[in-house]
Structures are given as structure tokens and as C-alpha cells.
Specification:
This protein is an all-alpha fold. It is built from three helices and no strands. The protein is 83% helix and 0% strand.
Amino acid sequence: MIIAVMALYRLNNPYIGIVVIWAFTGIILKRMDDFKSIVIAASAGIVVVAVVTVLVFLRKKTGTA
């Protein structure tokens, strides 16, 4: 999650966030019955990456670097 957030800001590419959210969703679906702690961590990661992705989309749309 930390690497994804850093890449989002440094590369100013919101599509990185979408891919990471997709990966976390796959982790949740695969480990839903096995390990609840992994599901909780991946869910928290989705929330954080989604917020940062929206911020990068808005920053890119307004044109500020």
C-alpha cells in the first residue's frame, strides 16, 4: 500500500491505484474464508489507495503538478 501511494504521487498516474485496488480485491476474494486479518488489511489498503487515487485524478484533471 505504501509503495502504491508513493508511486501514485511520484508518477502522477492514477491508473496505478486502480490496478492495486483490483489486486487487493483479488486477495480479499481468495482469502475471505481463511484469514480475517488479511481481509481487514487488504480492505484498509483499498480505502487508502482509493482515496489517494481520487486525489491524483482530481489533481491531474485540474492540471496542477
